[in-house]
Amino acid sequence: MYLEIEDLSVDLGEFQLKNINLDVNEGEYVTLIGPTGSGKSVLLETIIGFYSPDKGIIKLHGKIMNNVQPENRGIGIVYQDNILFPNMDVYENIAYGARKKFSEEEIHEKIVKIAKKMKIDHILHRDIATLSGGEAQRTSLARTLIVDPKIILMDEPFSALDITTQKKLTVLIKKIVRDYKTTVLHVTHNFNDIWNLADRVGVMKDGKIHQLSNIHDVFSRPKSDFVADFVGVQNIFEGKIIEIDSERAIIELNNGIQITSADTECVQKIDKNKNDKILIAIRPESIIFSNEKFESSARNQLKGTIIEVIESGPTTLINVDVNGNIFKGLLTKSSAEFLEVEIEKEIYMSFKSLNVNILDSYKSTED
Fold first, then answer.
1. 257: which of 10, 132, 147, 253 fits an S-S bond (Cβ 3.0–4.6 Å)?
2. Nearest alpha-carbon partner for 328 in 237, 225, 195, 242
3. Domain spans, the chain
4. Which uninterrupted H or E stretch holds 23?
5. Rounded distance, CA 113 to CA 179, Å?
6. What's the pTM value of the predicted model, to 2 decimals?
7. Is pLDDT of 364 > 50?
8. pLDDT tens-digit series, residues 74-116
9. What is the rounded CA–CA span in Å between residue 77 and residue 97?
10. Cα(182)–Cα(173) distance, rounded to whole angstroms?
11. Alpha-carbon distance 286 to 63, whole Å?
12. Domain 225-358 bears CATH identifier 2.60.40.1930
């Protein structure tokens, strides 16, 4: 592994990082998400050396970093508030850190190259005060990249920008990171950053990483109800297994509702001699709605009553009561209009057994 974090704990008094284990491959783009105050920024600042761990190891490219000064770790960091020197123009800001490593001739060549890639070559001699948010953030990133860091840490670098600028900068960052073969650990609250940039994603809460996996697994196969809730699964139900084999499980919810899961990875782990309660999760977009009974191969087909309709931009969220179990589904505006969704209307639902995920643990957002 390129970056290895082993059993890392940091005690800051009112907040602690607890037994963090994290690995990042060379050239990989990993994002960290989680509620405010979950410890994402503290983890980045511990990796770069601003905080000292109480226990555990930070290893970069095979070398233990715990006692290495921040400026000698070969790690760059980009913050939400791009910290640029107001008394220097764009060129001088980018060159600042590089002067410790390269000659003026090398620096000039590197600035010309990176400024062109970052699309700021036309503003190199501009005053910092005249830059837009996107220009300032590109300058900050160029200043970080020019010193050839072993890894770049990014702490919500796009959150202060408007949506249009965010989209443009995300596309640009993706190309730059690929061109420079840069390794990145990126803290974000924006799920679009994950979909557009990340190879893997970690979910944090209360100073712990609760799941670290590829994007599909985190969003479609969350390991706990906290992760499921945070990434928007929304449909989380408690039930008991009433039938199980190596390929499927039938789970009974409240009031006799039965759901079939083909989550074989979890099904095969379950002790078939026990009748313990489990949690299942279904993403709202996995549910298909109809005004008529389905003719479908989907194992799960239910009938319920719409109890709430929530319009949100181009989508409509509907809550459907099935014998006291509330299912949440997501529709496009046109689908909602076609189905004529309204409160107290009866509606049919269908979802595949493959889309019913069995959760590994009960770690709740309320704990």
1. 253
2. 237
3. 3-220, 225-358
4. strand 16-24
5. 12
6. 0.83
7. no
8. 999 998 877 899 999 999 999 998 998 899 999 999 999 999 9
9. 12
10. 10
11. 45
12. no
